[in-house]
Amino acid sequence: MAKREIVLDTETTGFNPHEGHRLVEIGCVEMIDNVPTGNDYHQYINPEREVPEEAFKVHGLNWEHLKQFPVFADVADEFLEYIGDSTLVIHNAKFDINFLNAELSWLKKTELSYDRVIDTLDLAKKKFPGSRVNLDALCKRYGIDNSNRVKHGALLDSELLAEVYLELIDARTPGLLFGSKDKKEEKARTEVVFGSGEIRAVRNFEVPKEDLENHQKFMEKIKDNLWSS
């Protein structure tokens, strides 16, 4: 039977839902047998309150932007249907699960069990004791490009975490693509370094006009060549 896992991240207005803080964003990446399917879930949420400056600095989402989106009560069933009974892969899971369960409890819905959660923070601490194991540090360790992570974002962070998770469990397959179509096309432009098996981004070099002209003059001097016949 295929193994379905959902890599999940949230953004919030603060640290504690029982102090009045709320969810503002949920992002999920679906993987089946360690392969991303592209069937991702992303939802901005109206927190029904102002966003403190400290939280805004982290994720860049303010009340003016968020008030146009549905409240959690309006998307809860859709979200629960999407995750189903799949394993949830989360970095520092206690934070995200606490917020999700608080929101679900206020709606009198069944809360999420920690038994179905894989916390990549715990995996990273066991694998790299004494080292920094936040998402940025793990991306750096594994050579994962997180240059687009200027601010925290639930879907982007889920995409990065999916890559980190596969590295942590030694299940990464070269060439797997995460993210949007544009991001996939950019990552797909790769080449194999001859003799090493290394895969790296295609590099484009601009040839000076003078060099092109000199090359053309040289080629014209070669008679009966094979390539222009």
Question: What is the gyration radius calculated from CA atoms?
Answer: 23 Å
What is the SS-derived class?
Answer: alpha/beta
Which second-level CATH architecture applies?
Answer: 2-Layer Sandwich
What best-fitting shape do the alpha-carbon axes yield?
Answer: globular
How many extended strands? 8
Q: How helical, in percent, are the residues?
A: 25-40%
The N- and C-terminal alpha carbons lie at a distance of 57 Å
Write the layout of secondary structure elements.
Blueprint: E1 4-12, E2 23-32, E3 35-36, E4 41-44, H1 53-59, H2 63-66, H3 72-83, E5 87-90, H4 93-106, E6 117-119, H5 120-127, H6 135-142, H7 154-168, H8 181-188, E7 190-192, E8 199-201, H9 209-220
Parallel strand pairs: 1-5, 5-6
Antiparallel strand pairs: 1-2, 2-3, 2-4, 7-8
Descriptors:
single chain; 229 residues; two-stranded antiparallel sheet; Nucleotidyltransferase, domain 5; alpha/beta; 17% strand; six-stranded mixed β-sheet; 8 strands
What does this 3D model show about the protein?
- The protein is α/β, with parallel strands linked by helices.
- The chain has one domain: 2-Layer Sandwich (Nucleotidyltransferase, domain 5).
- Helix content is 38%, strand content 17%.
- The chain is built from 9 helices and 8 strands.
- The strands form 2 sheets. Strands 1, 2, 3, 4, 5 and 6 form a 6-stranded mixed beta sheet that branches. Strands 7-8 form a two-stranded antiparallel ribbon.
- Strand 2 and strand 3 (35-36) form a beta hairpin.
- Helix 5 (120-127) crosses helix 7 and helix 6 crosses helix 7 (154-168).
